[in-house]
Amino acid sequence: MLDVQRLIGHVFPSRRVAGHELLAGGLINTTLKVHFDGHIEPVVLRVYRDGPAACNKEVALHDLIHQQVPVARIIYAHAEENDDLPSFTVLEYVAGITFQQLKRTNDLEAIRQAAASAGETLARIGSFEFPAPGDLLVNQGQLVVGEKFIDGPDPIPRLLDRFLASTILQQRVGADLIERLHDFMWSYAPVLPDLENDRSLVHNDYGNRN
Protein backbone atom coordinates (compact mmCIF):
# COMPACT_ATOMS: atom_id res chain seq x y z
CA MET A 1 0.00 0.00 0.00
CA LEU A 2 1.22 3.47 -0.89
CA ASP A 3 2.45 5.43 2.15
CA VAL A 4 1.25 8.90 1.14
CA GLN A 5 2.34 10.60 4.37
CA ARG A 6 5.87 9.26 3.96
CA LEU A 7 6.21 10.48 0.38
CA ILE A 8 4.70 13.89 1.10
CA GLY A 9 6.81 14.16 4.27
CA HIS A 10 9.89 13.74 2.11
CA VAL A 11 8.93 17.04 0.43
CA PHE A 12 7.02 18.85 3.19
CA PRO A 13 8.34 17.55 6.56
CA SER A 14 6.09 19.82 8.64
CA ARG A 15 2.81 19.10 6.85
CA ARG A 16 0.32 16.48 7.99
CA VAL A 17 -1.78 14.72 5.36
CA ALA A 18 -5.49 15.00 6.18
CA GLY A 19 -6.61 12.73 3.36
CA HIS A 20 -6.21 11.89 -0.30
CA GLU A 21 -8.29 10.80 -3.26
CA LEU A 22 -7.51 9.03 -6.50
CA LEU A 23 -7.79 11.29 -9.52
CA ALA A 24 -9.55 9.92 -12.59
CA GLY A 25 -7.69 9.78 -15.87
CA GLY A 26 -4.32 8.15 -16.44
CA LEU A 27 -4.23 4.38 -16.13
CA ILE A 28 -0.45 3.87 -15.97
CA ASN A 29 0.66 6.01 -13.05
CA THR A 30 -1.03 6.49 -9.67
CA THR A 31 -2.18 10.10 -9.31
CA LEU A 32 -3.64 11.39 -6.04
CA LYS A 33 -5.03 14.70 -4.82
CA VAL A 34 -3.55 15.18 -1.36
CA HIS A 35 -5.24 17.34 1.30
CA PHE A 36 -3.47 18.85 4.31
CA ASP A 37 -4.51 19.94 7.78
CA GLY A 38 -5.01 23.68 8.08
CA HIS A 39 -5.54 26.19 5.33
CA ILE A 40 -2.98 24.75 2.93
CA GLU A 41 -3.70 24.25 -0.75
CA PRO A 42 -3.83 20.61 -1.89
CA VAL A 43 -1.19 19.14 -4.16
CA VAL A 44 -1.03 16.27 -6.62
CA LEU A 45 1.14 13.24 -5.91
CA ARG A 46 2.06 11.12 -8.94
CA VAL A 47 3.84 7.77 -8.49
CA TYR A 48 5.36 6.30 -11.65
CA ARG A 49 4.73 2.67 -12.47
CA ASP A 50 7.71 2.55 -14.84
CA GLY A 51 10.17 4.07 -12.37
CA PRO A 52 12.91 6.66 -12.88
CA ALA A 53 12.81 6.61 -16.69
CA ALA A 54 9.17 7.73 -16.79
CA CYS A 55 9.69 10.29 -14.03
CA ASN A 56 12.77 11.80 -15.67
CA LYS A 57 11.03 12.02 -19.04
CA GLU A 58 8.04 13.86 -17.60
CA VAL A 59 10.32 16.34 -15.82
CA ALA A 60 12.40 16.89 -18.98
CA LEU A 61 9.25 17.45 -21.06
CA HIS A 62 7.93 19.88 -18.46
CA ASP A 63 11.20 21.82 -18.55
CA LEU A 64 10.99 21.99 -22.35
CA ILE A 65 7.41 23.22 -22.74
CA HIS A 66 6.28 24.91 -19.53
CA GLN A 67 7.00 28.45 -20.69
CA GLN A 68 4.79 28.07 -23.78
CA VAL A 69 2.24 25.41 -22.84
CA PRO A 70 -0.08 25.61 -19.79
CA VAL A 71 0.97 22.70 -17.55
CA ALA A 72 0.85 22.14 -13.81
CA ARG A 73 4.03 23.23 -12.04
CA ILE A 74 6.26 20.44 -10.74
CA ILE A 75 7.05 21.25 -7.12
CA TYR A 76 9.36 18.31 -6.51
CA ALA A 77 10.61 15.28 -8.44
CA HIS A 78 12.15 12.15 -6.96
CA ALA A 79 13.63 9.69 -9.45
CA GLU A 80 16.52 8.22 -7.46
CA GLU A 81 17.09 4.47 -7.61
CA ASN A 82 19.39 4.18 -4.60
CA ASP A 83 16.73 4.41 -1.87
CA ASP A 84 13.53 2.61 -0.96
CA LEU A 85 11.18 5.32 -2.22
CA PRO A 86 9.32 4.95 -5.52
CA SER A 87 9.79 7.45 -8.32
CA PHE A 88 7.29 10.26 -7.78
CA THR A 89 6.54 13.91 -8.36
CA VAL A 90 4.55 16.48 -6.39
CA LEU A 91 2.69 18.96 -8.58
CA GLU A 92 0.46 21.95 -7.99
CA TYR A 93 -3.23 21.13 -8.03
CA VAL A 94 -5.18 22.96 -10.73
CA ALA A 95 -8.97 22.84 -10.29
CA GLY A 96 -11.01 22.28 -13.43
CA ILE A 97 -13.19 19.95 -15.46
CA THR A 98 -12.55 17.94 -18.59
CA PHE A 99 -13.76 19.09 -21.99
CA GLN A 100 -16.05 16.05 -21.99
CA GLN A 101 -17.74 17.33 -18.82
CA LEU A 102 -17.97 20.85 -20.25
CA LYS A 103 -19.77 19.61 -23.37
CA ARG A 104 -22.48 18.08 -21.21
CA THR A 105 -23.37 21.54 -19.87
CA ASN A 106 -24.48 22.65 -23.36
CA ASP A 107 -22.93 26.06 -22.65
CA LEU A 108 -22.06 26.83 -26.27
CA GLU A 109 -19.98 29.94 -25.56
CA ALA A 110 -17.89 28.17 -22.91
CA ILE A 111 -17.45 25.18 -25.24
CA ARG A 112 -16.35 27.49 -28.07
CA GLN A 113 -13.78 29.20 -25.87
CA ALA A 114 -12.44 25.90 -24.54
CA ALA A 115 -12.22 24.39 -28.02
CA ALA A 116 -10.24 27.38 -29.27
CA SER A 117 -7.92 27.14 -26.26
CA ALA A 118 -7.45 23.39 -26.79
CA GLY A 119 -6.52 23.97 -30.42
CA GLU A 120 -4.07 26.71 -29.52
CA THR A 121 -2.44 24.47 -26.91
CA LEU A 122 -2.14 21.59 -29.37
CA ALA A 123 -0.48 23.90 -31.87
CA ARG A 124 2.02 25.03 -29.24
CA ILE A 125 2.86 21.42 -28.40
CA GLY A 126 3.47 20.68 -32.08
CA SER A 127 5.76 23.69 -32.44
CA PHE A 128 8.58 21.88 -30.62
CA GLU A 129 10.77 20.08 -33.13
CA PHE A 130 13.64 17.60 -32.79
CA PRO A 131 16.59 16.68 -35.03
CA ALA A 132 14.90 13.45 -36.16
CA PRO A 133 11.72 11.41 -35.58
CA GLY A 134 11.70 8.68 -32.96
CA ASP A 135 11.04 7.75 -29.36
CA LEU A 136 11.93 10.41 -26.81
CA LEU A 137 14.46 9.36 -24.16
CA VAL A 138 16.34 11.18 -21.43
CA ASN A 139 20.12 11.30 -21.17
CA GLN A 140 21.64 13.22 -18.25
CA GLY A 141 18.44 15.19 -17.81
CA GLN A 142 18.16 16.14 -21.49
CA LEU A 143 15.66 14.88 -24.05
CA VAL A 144 17.22 12.89 -26.88
CA VAL A 145 15.66 11.05 -29.81
CA GLY A 146 15.91 7.27 -29.86
CA GLU A 147 14.92 4.81 -32.56
CA LYS A 148 11.96 5.36 -34.87
CA PHE A 149 8.72 3.64 -33.93
CA ILE A 150 8.39 2.42 -37.52
CA ASP A 151 11.05 2.80 -40.22
CA GLY A 152 10.05 2.95 -43.87
CA PRO A 153 6.86 3.61 -45.89
CA ASP A 154 3.25 3.31 -44.67
CA PRO A 155 4.11 3.95 -41.00
CA ILE A 156 0.49 4.35 -39.81
CA PRO A 157 -0.97 1.01 -40.99
CA ARG A 158 2.26 -0.81 -40.14
CA LEU A 159 2.22 0.62 -36.62
CA LEU A 160 -1.42 -0.43 -36.24
CA ASP A 161 -0.48 -3.94 -37.34
CA ARG A 162 2.11 -4.01 -34.58
CA PHE A 163 -0.60 -3.13 -32.05
CA LEU A 164 -2.97 -5.70 -33.54
CA ALA A 165 -0.33 -8.39 -33.04
CA SER A 166 -0.69 -8.02 -29.27
CA THR A 167 -1.83 -11.29 -27.72
CA ILE A 168 -3.84 -9.47 -25.07
CA LEU A 169 -5.63 -7.34 -27.68
CA GLN A 170 -6.42 -10.41 -29.77
CA GLN A 171 -7.91 -12.14 -26.75
CA ARG A 172 -10.07 -9.11 -25.95
CA VAL A 173 -11.47 -8.24 -29.39
CA GLY A 174 -11.25 -11.50 -31.34
CA ALA A 175 -9.78 -12.49 -34.70
CA ASP A 176 -12.69 -11.12 -36.78
CA LEU A 177 -12.34 -7.54 -35.54
CA ILE A 178 -8.54 -7.74 -35.79
CA GLU A 179 -8.84 -8.67 -39.47
CA ARG A 180 -11.44 -5.97 -40.17
CA LEU A 181 -9.26 -3.29 -38.54
CA HIS A 182 -6.25 -4.44 -40.55
CA ASP A 183 -8.18 -4.36 -43.83
CA PHE A 184 -9.79 -1.00 -43.04
CA MET A 185 -6.51 0.72 -42.24
CA TRP A 186 -4.67 -0.66 -45.25
CA SER A 187 -7.55 0.34 -47.55
CA TYR A 188 -6.74 3.95 -46.67
CA ALA A 189 -2.94 3.57 -46.88
CA PRO A 190 -2.65 5.41 -50.23
CA VAL A 191 -4.25 8.59 -48.81
CA LEU A 192 -2.74 8.57 -45.31
CA PRO A 193 -0.05 11.20 -44.65
CA ASP A 194 3.59 10.15 -44.88
CA LEU A 195 4.91 10.75 -41.37
CA GLU A 196 8.29 9.12 -41.87
CA ASN A 197 10.22 12.38 -41.52
CA ASP A 198 7.91 14.30 -39.16
CA ARG A 199 9.80 15.28 -36.01
CA SER A 200 7.46 17.45 -33.94
CA LEU A 201 6.42 16.83 -30.35
CA VAL A 202 3.16 14.84 -30.22
CA HIS A 203 0.64 14.40 -27.41
CA ASN A 204 -0.43 10.75 -27.68
CA ASP A 205 -3.68 11.12 -25.73
CA TYR A 206 -5.09 14.55 -26.57
CA GLY A 207 -8.76 13.68 -26.14
CA ASN A 208 -11.75 15.35 -24.53
CA ARG A 209 -11.41 13.26 -21.36
CA ASN A 210 -7.79 14.29 -20.84
Please describe what this structure looks like.
This protein has helices at residues 4-11, 52-65, 99-103, 108-126, 155-164, 167-187, and strands at residues 17-22, 30-36, 43-47, 74-78, 88-92, 136-139, 142-145. The strands form 2 sheets. It has a 5-stranded antiparallel beta sheet with strand order 1-2-3-5-4, sandwiched between helices. Strands 6-7 form a two-stranded antiparallel sheet. Strand 6 and strand 7 (142-145) form a beta hairpin. The chain is an alpha+beta fold and 210 residues long. The mean pLDDT is 93.
Radius of gyration: 20 Å
Q: Quickly count the helices.
A: 6
| Gross morphology | globular
How are strands sequenced across the largest beta sheet?
A: 1-2-3-5-4
The major β-sheet equals: 5 strands, antiparallel
Which stretches are low in confidence, meaning pLDDT under 50 for 5 or more residues running?
none
| Distance linking N and C termini | 26 Å
Q: How are helices and strands ordered from N to C?
A: HEEEHEEHHEEHH
**Which range does the strand content fall in?**
15-25%
| Class from secondary-structure proportions | alpha+beta
Number of strands: 7
- Level of helix content? 25-40%
- State mean pLDDT (0 to 100 scale): 93
Key features of this structure:
7 strands, single chain, five-stranded antiparallel β-sheet, 6 helices, two-stranded antiparallel sheet, alpha+beta
